[in-house]
Write a structure and sequence with these properties.
The complex is a heterodimer of chains A (207) and B (809).
Chain A: E1 2-7, H1 15-26, E2 32-36, H2 54-65, E3 68-72, H3 82-93, E4 102-108, H4 116-126, E5 134-135, E6 141-143, H5 159-182, H6 187-194, H7 198-202
Parallel strand pairs in A: 1-2, 1-3, 3-4, 4-5, 4-6
Chain B: E1 2-7, H1 15-26, E2 32-36, H2 54-65, E3 68-72, H3 82-93, E4 102-108, H4 116-126, E5 134-135, E6 141-143, H5 159-181, E7 193-200, E8 205-212, E9 217-222, H6 233-246, H7 258-274, H8 279-284, E10 296-299, E11 302-305, H9 309-320, E12 325-328, E13 345-346, H10 350-353, H11 362-370, H12 382-397, H13 407-418, E14 420-421, E15 427-428, H14 432-452, E16 456-462, E17 472-475, H15 479-493, E18 497-499, E19 504-510, E20 513-520, E21 526-530, E22 533-536, H16 545-551, E23 563-564, H17 573-580, E24 585-586, E25 591-597, E26 616-618, H18 632-641, E27 646-650, H19 654-657, H20 663-672, E28 676-678, H21 681-687, H22 692-708, E29 728-740, E30 743-744, E31 751-753, E32 759-765, H23 782-808
Parallel strand pairs in B: 1-2, 1-3, 3-4, 4-5, 4-6, 10-21, 11-12, 11-22, 12-18, 22-32, 23-29
Antiparallel strand pairs in B: 7-8, 8-9, 13-17, 14-15, 16-17, 19-20, 20-21, 24-30, 25-29, 26-27, 27-29, 28-29, 31-32
The chains are: A alpha/beta (207), B alpha/beta (809).
The structure holds flavin-adenine dinucleotide and flavin mononucleotide (FMN) (2 copies).
One flavin mononucleotide sits between chains B (9, 11, 14-16, 74-78, 108-111, 114-115, 146) and A (46, 89, 92-93, 128, 198).
């Protein structure tokens, strides 16, 4: 299977990036994970022409081609960082590659809670009509105290967390399989979401 | 009442903007609402702090000053737009203007229930500790189907909607009054007395005594003896003053000395607690320095950018010529990298050096130069080189037992030491005319400094780290600070004006002539300085990783999180200013790394400082990877090739050889986690996450090389201690940026040259900001010689060029 992992921040130092790098290495025999950065992508500004800037289009194509997407999000002010949200806005506003895409959410934070509030928001966001991703339900992987979590080789030092992550990832592999079977018969709704518009929705259309 | 309204999107067309505009108009008799737009707010980036930028400062100021804030949020993907997140992140990162601020949330959306989810998210965000706004509960104002809601005048059509908005707004006005009562400072009462506390300083404990009366902080007295002079001084004068004047603990830490700053603030907080007060109240009080000041304008003869060694020397020279000078310095205290310098400055002074005995190895070094082939010397240096070979021949022939030196040896060593080839095969060596000026005039600089008030230790001729010869003149007194202290006093005593916390942002250029600078003052005011000439002396760009990476052609890799030994002020500002006037650059791809620096801070003088004879360098796998006596460049590249981080392994014996250490200091470092210690090598390896077998094998082999007196693996040839006696130590090290050789192209008169090699009228540059002299590698001790020699020339010429022109007129 081929996944992409999106680093949910533009910071040069990020434990969420480290988490994805660890996953890439640790699960290399079971899936290929390509890590995608969002640093330097333009800020969303809702242009009239609805054309994605180049970097966004590149990312969009990668999401489109992947069997599934892993998003690692930090938590800023109890929510998802602006740079990640901006990318999701672009994708929802232009090519909408997330529709029906299996997604696993993970997150690392310095404090004890491990970005739980940001993950909650991210689920709601990914459920919006123009994103409509298939987010793996119930499982959430939260890595608290992330500054102390990795050794110099980039390995996760908390053993129980490694086990938990392995279980989550197993589930995600199954979830991707099941989802892809499920959505085979879903092309009508998917098409609806591709064409969704808030203008029409407000008129009671769009169903 | 005065409110700020924030349009929660950067879209060109927005119903939320219309809603705020309607509110502004509709409520104009009740309150003033000023609308702020997000269009120019940069995307939040933790690693590129722009809290100081004009736009972020503007938001901070307006929000701080307002009675309350109204946020109108669209809903994007069930949440608030990223543009709104971004400004809230900036307003919760280093600045916190929302703290305790009354906020009303409104939202317009296309959908009938639109923006309800976004409003909920926004409430959660505003409640996060970094934001900590006081959001009005209830009264959700949601404007659904916004595309139908406004008439052509931008007024809300539905009377019912307007009525509801009226009631929400009235409630918000009352809410604002009440919520702001919570922001009125609480009274504090102390048990009067003088309280002794110790705070954490940069170099250890800072004992201080704080005197409190019934309701005031009266006096703060700090024992400053352990802190680094020059860097921390300003903390001791300014922070206590701000605390006492403002009766607040909400004071800005001082850039470049933040640890000491926090130490002082925490110490006072502890005393307040001991006296039964609540320091949190003091931390919440308004800042003493938050008064906005009027713009300022000055006129002078010469303005100098940067008060490091080069800048102060230039200013002193201007004053010697009876002209006026202003020095604009970015940081709160002068000194830049110069105060950090180890001290000795190179100058060939054979008369003095000859009074010292030669030491083993020196004759050999001279012989090596004598045996070099002329073909290996670049043509412009050949005459000097042959002359030097003659001098060496005579010295060696006379069987001299004294320390030899000459201007020519200084010149050729500076040239040879600076010669490098980058990754693209470009060769660089010191520009002859600049090297000649340096080596001919460095001794005059020493003599001049003596006149200014620096005294040198004549009993010792030093060889600075990274130098090739013993020709270092070492000042008495504390290292680099000795120069700055004397020069600052000289400049101030002779009427020079030093303006600290005044970073220069722009050059004033009229008709191709540079005639002044524009800077920003400590309180955000614009400072314009008109002058006949401008001397750039703002240092290099060692603390600007982006810039280093942009120009680098020498190192295979520079980490994003590389540390530096430099002052954080040294960000290449002068080079950018020069470029704005069309200056040419030279040698920008070459930077110097200090291979054995603290991985967390980039500092040189932490860890266990011992000569390389006494430790074993191992990589993260526990294997040796280089001759510990390699040159800086060899060590650095070897470290980069091995993942940058490496360790110095030593045994219990080091505490007798390390000149900066004692058992106490070792214990403190182990406790702080900056030094690893274990009773066995296996245990040490485990702590370092190495394979114990590998490390044990490495050390076993190394010990056998010490016994044999030779190292077949890496050719180390000077040995002292083995690693045999427990406990064993490992000091983590990593290369850090130390010096930037590249910079503005100048001629021997320090005039900045443009791309056509022509002088840019009115612009001079001296010190690390200029390039061409040190080329690919700066020798230890040569910088100080450089900055005081070229700094003096810049000061002289910035005055004399002008006089010459006037005479010719
Ligand atoms: C830890 C350390 C040890 C060293 N040891 C030695 C040694 O032993 N011997 C030796 O010869 N060399 C040594 N060097 C190198 C030497 O110290 C520097 O190259 C030299 O001091 C540079 O002097 P300067 O006057 O050009 O710049 P600096 O001394 O760095 O001064 C530049 C000044 O400009 C200010 N500035 C920057 N931007 C602006 C702006 N926009 N507006 C206004 N002001 C601005 C800065 O705040 C600073 O005060 C050492 C360097 C370091 C970092
Ligand atoms: C502006 C800002 C706001 C933050 N707010 C929160 C927060 O509300 N909750 C939290 O746990 N951490 C918060 N943090 C800390 C980040 O969560 C922490 O840096 C991140 O989760 C760790 O992931 P990273 O290493 O990938 O950046 C904030 C950081 C910044 C820069
Ligand atoms: C990327 C994007 C995502 C959107 N998501 C939502 C949404 O989740 N819910 C909604 O009601 N409107 C959504 N909209 C439509 C409108 O932008 C929204 O109703 C908005 O609040 C209108 O306010 P404005 O005119 O001030 O932008 C979305 C628009 C964009 C561009």
């Amino acid at each position: 299977m081929k996944f992409i992992g999106i680093v949910g921040t533009n910071a040069t130092k990020s434990t969420n990036r480290q988490l994805l790098q660890f996953m890439q290495k640790h699960f290399s025999s079971r899936a290929e994970i390509e890590i995608c950065e969002i640093k330097g992508l333009p800020a969303f500004n809702q242009p009239e022409d609805r054309v994605a800037p180049e970097g966004i289009q590149v990312l969009s194509d990668k999401v489109e081609a992947a069997d599934g997407v892993i998003i690692a999000t930090p938590e800023y002010d109890h929510t998802v960082p602006a740079p990640l949200k901006s990318v999701l806005e672009w994708l929802s506003y232009t090519s909408r590659p997330f529709i029906d895409k299996p997604v696993m959410i993970v997150g690392a934070s310095y404090g004890a809670l491990g970005s739980s509030r940001a993950q909650g928001h991210l689920r709601q966001i990914l459920d919006a009509p123009e994103l409509k991703a298939r987010v793996m339900p119930s499982e959430e992987f939260l890595l608290g105290h992330s500054l102390q979590a990795f050794d110099d080789n980039g390995d996760l030092v908390y053993e129980d967390k490694v086990t938990e992550l392995e279980e989550c990832f197993d589930q995600f592999l199954q979830f991707v399989d099941i989802t892809n079977q499920l959505i085979k018969n879903h092309s009508f709704q998917a098409e609806q979401n591709k064409n969704f518009s808030w203008e029409k929705a407000s008129e009671g259309g769009n169903n | 009442m005065k409110f700020i309204g924030i349009v929660g999107t950067n879209a060109a067309k927005s119903y939320n903007r219309m809603l705020l505009q309607f509110m502004k108009k509709h409520f104009s008799d009740k309150a003033e609402i000023e609308i702020l737009e997000l269009t120019d707010v940069p995307m939040f980036d933790e690693s590129d702090d722009q809290s100081d930028s004009d736009i972020i400062q503007m938001f901070n100021k307006k929000i701080s000053e307002a009675d309350g804030v109204i946020i109108a949020t669209p809903e994007h993907n069930h949440s608030v737009p990223s543009a709104l997140n971004s400004i809230l992140e900036w307003m919760s990162f280093n600045l916190h203007p929302f703290d305790g601020k009354p906020v009303m949330i409104v939202g317009a959306s296309l959908h009938p229930q639109g923006s309800s989810r976004a409003q909920l998210h926004l409430r959660q965000i505003l409640d996060a500790p970094g934001v900590n706004a006081t959001v009005m509960p209830g009264s959700e104002f949601l404007l659904g189907q916004a595309q139908k809601a406004f008439d052509e005048n931008g007024d809300l059509k539905s009377e019912g909607t307007v009525d509801f908005l009226d009631s929400c707004f009235t409630k918000f006005q009352r809410f604002t009054e009440i919520a702001n009562l919570l922001n009125v400072p609480e009274d504090l009462n102390f048990k009067p007395g003088t309280f002794e506390v110790t705070a954490k300083g940069h170099n250890g404990d800072l004992p201080m005594s704080v005197t409190l009366s019934k309701d005031r902080i009266e006096d703060i007295d700090i024992d400053t003896s352990t802190e680094t002079q020059g860097i921390a001084d300003v903390v001791f004068s300014r922070i206590p003053q701000e605390i006492v004047n403002g009766q607040t603990l909400n004071v800005d830490v001082i850039s470049g000395a933040s640890i000491t700053s926090h130490g002082v603030i925490d110490g006072v907080a502890r005393a307040v607690k001991m006296a039964g007060g609540n320091p949190e109240i003091l931390k919440k009080r308004p800042k003493a320095s938050n008064i906005v000041q009027k713009d300022e304008e000055y006129t002078t003869d010469v303005v100098v950018v940067g008060a490091g060694g080069a800048g102060l020397a230039a200013a002193a020279k201007v004053l010697d010529e009876d002209k006026k000078v202003i020095i604009a310095e970015k940081f709160p205290s002068p000194g830049g990298n110069t105060v950090r310098a180890g001290g000795p400055m190179n100058a060939a002074d054979p008369e003095w050096q000859n009074t010292f005995d030669a030491i083993p190895g020196e004759a050999h070094r001279l012989k090596e130069i004598k045996d070099m082939k002329l073909d290996d010397i670049d043509p412009e240096y050949r005459d000097d080189f042959q002359e030097l070979q003659k001098q060496i021949g005579e010295y060696l022939g006379s069987d001299g037992k004294y320390l030899f030196d000459s201007k020519l040896l200084f010149r050729i060593q500076t040239y040879l030491g600076g010669k490098r080839t980058d990754l693209q095969g470009n060769e660089i060596h010191g520009q002859y005319d600049l090297v000649k000026i340096l080596t001919d005039h460095a001794l005059e600089s020493v003599k001049w400094l003596e006149k200014v008030g620096v005294s040198f230790d004549k009993n010792e001729v030093a060889m600075p780290v990274g130098a090739l010869w013993r020709r270092g003149h070492k000042p008495m007194g504390p290292e680099g600070f000795a120069y700055i202290q004397a020069l600052q006093k000289y400049v101030e005593d002779n009427g020079g004006k030093l303006m600290t916390e005044t970073p220069v942002k722009e050059l004033i250029i009229e008709d191709g002539k540079v005639c002044g600078v524009i800077a920003r003052g400590a309180n955000g005011q614009k400072i314009t300085i008109h002058a006949e000439s401008v001397v750039l002396a703002s240092g290099g760009y060692g603390a600007n990783t982006k810039m280093l990476k942009k120009y680098n052609t020498y190192w295979t890799e520079i980490d994003d999180d590389i540390q530096t030994s430099n002052s954080p002020a040294i960000t290449g500002d002068g080079i950018k200013l020069g470029l704005s006037a069309g200056a040419d650059l030279v040698g920008m791809g070459f930077s110097q790394m200090m291979p054995v620096s603290d991985p967390e801070t980039g500092e040189l003088f932490t860890g266990v400082q011992v000569p390389p004879a006494n430790f074993i360098m191992v990589n993260q796998q526990g294997k040796r990877f280089v001759n510990e006596y390699g040159s800086r460049d060899q060590l650095t590249q070897a470290a980069i090739d091995n993942g940058s981080l490496f360790y110095l392994i030593a045994d219990d014996g080091i505490k007798d050889t390390a000149y900066n250490t004692s058992q106490e200091k070792l214990d403190a470092q182990v406790k702080a986690g900056t030094l690893f210690r274990d009773d066995t090598l296996e245990g040490l390896a485990k702590q370092l996450k190495m394979d114990p077998e590998v490390l044990v094998d490495t050390i076993k082999k190394y010990n056998s090389y010490v016994d044999a007196g030779s190292d077949p693996e890496f050719g180390k040839d000077v040995f002292d201690l083995k690693a045999v006696k427990a406990p064993f130590y490992a000091t983590p090290r990593k290369p850090a940026v130390h010096h930037t050789m590249g910079g503005l192209k100048i001629d021997t008169g320090t005039h900045v040259l443009n791309k056509d090699g022509k002088v840019i009228d009115g612009l001079y540059a001296a010190g690390e900001v200029a390039g061409g002299l040190h080329a690919g590698n700066r020798l230890g001790g040569n910088s100080l010689a450089d900055i005081f020699t070229f700094g003096r020339i810049a000061g002289e010429n910035s005055v004399e060029d002008k006089q010459r022109v006037e005479q010719n007129d």
